[in-house]
Amino acid sequence: MQEAFYICALVALLATLGVVTNARPVHALLYLVVSLLAVAGVFFALGAPFAGALEVIVYAGAIMVLFLFVIMLLNLGPDDLPPIMNRKVKWLYAALSAVLVALLMAMDLGRRLPEGGHGPAGEVGAIGDKLFGDYLLPFEITALLLLVAIVGSVVMAHREPRR
After folding, report:
1. Which residues have a Cβ under 8 Å from the Cβ of 19 and sit 6 or more positions away?
2. CA-to-CA dists, residue 153 to 29, 81, 110, 148, angstroms
3. Domain residue ranges of the chain, discontinuous segments joined by +
4. Over its length of 163 residues, how does the chain's per-residue pLDDT go in tens digits?
5. CA angle (82, 151, 161) in 5-degree steps
6. Is the pTM of this model over 0.70?
7. Distances (CA, A) of 87 to 83, 93, 97, 129, 144
8. Do 131 and 54 contact (CB within 8 A), yes or no?
């Protein structure tokens, strides 16, 4: 599992770099999907299958579809976006990031990953009891806010042009 963790973490890191450095919004979105799937792999490698499944369903599924619809509604191309930075600054940030990652890996080289959590806090039933018991009102308010956001985005997308 240690190897799977590091492979998924490396894939997540590289895909996230693809998100940040890509000029095309749809390509950046696809890199983000790969990054989120790799983070789900990290959760699975750490012994948290429920968190990994939620990552795949909620983030890699639903949120990415929402982002794709927003990109399609805006119809942005690489020419519509402002230039982020010049090449020298990009290479400086890349070098500093590589040094930071190397330092973090050197500090963590001798450690082993902890065993996955097998207690009542990680079980699906305990999460459901808390979510629909103690936190039912905030859960319903969040659902209502999401519904309002969806209706608002549909209204904004289908607004008649002014004459």
Report:
1. 28, 31, 32, 35
2. 19, 22, 49, 9
3. 2-118, 120-163
4. 788 888 999 999 999 988 888 877 788 888 999 999 999 999 998 888 888 888 898 888 888 888 877 777 776 655 655 666 666 777 787 788 888 878 877 777 666 656 655 555 557 777 788 878 888 888 899 889 988 988 887 787 776 666 6
5. 60
6. no
7. 11, 10, 15, 52, 45
8. no
Give the whole-angstrom CA distance, residue 99 versus residue 162: 52
Both tokens assigned to 118: 């097998």
Domain 2-118 CATH assignment equals 3.30.420.40: no
Cβ–Cβ < 8 Å for 43, 66? no
Instruction: Give the span between the Cα atoms of 22 and 83, in whole angstroms.
Output: 11
